[in-house]
Amino acid sequence: MDKEKALEKIKKCLALSQSANEHEAAQALKQAQALMRQHGISDAEVALSDIREHSCAGRTAAKMPGWQAMLANTVAGAFGCGWYLGGDWREPRIRYYGVDNKAELAAYAYDVLLRQVKAARKDYMATVLKRVRLAKNKTYRADEFCKGWILGVQRKVGKFANGEREQALLQQFGDNLGLNQTKTRESTPGGHAKQAGNLDRFLGHEKGKHAQLHHAMGGEDLKRLGAT
What we know:
This protein is mostly helical. 60% of the residues lie in helices and 9% in strands. It has 2 domains: 3-48, no CATH class; 52-225, no CATH class. The chain has helices spanning 3-16, 22-39, 43-48, 66-79, 102-126, 135-157, 164-177, 193-208, 219-225; strands at 51-55, 64-65, 82-86, 93-99, 184-185. The protein has a 3-stranded antiparallel beta sheet. The chain has a two-stranded parallel sheet with strand order 2-5. InterPro entries: DUF2786, DUF7168, Phage_B3_Orf5.
């Protein structure tokens, strides 16, 4: 029996140890403890085995735009997850981690929202920003639009409040990964672009309020996210 299978069996035994039948509960607990000793599995490892990871579909830059990290944080907060930039340097991907299926749902939501904000950004650059000549100014203003869009999503989805145990597990899991702070990049505007960015954020916010999450998510997940 490998360690992963042993963990699953231990968890089943621990669940049975909560039985109202005292004899059955005692036997299940005894079996769980024996398996833990046999495979060198600690209480902390059993608890952390509740955490699952899931990668987002799309690749990202090792030094992603600030607005993209902002979206990753928004989704993590909505689902009560953590995230980090995983994979190797050639194909870095955002990876979410959370209890049960939360990481999978978060990765799905991120992919859906990323497609939408990129489409909105492309349209905004082709219309509102089409006469902006300096590339750095156009990029800056498009980035500000994206930040506003994500703020609109934040107002819509809110933040999921984890219980103390779940929050402690996420903290421990993240600590075990030994993560460094994700590096981001920001555009530096010139001229009046910084002032114009205020309007870009406002217009992005109005668009972001209409973001959609659909398909492959349960009704309760959609309800909590405010998606239709």
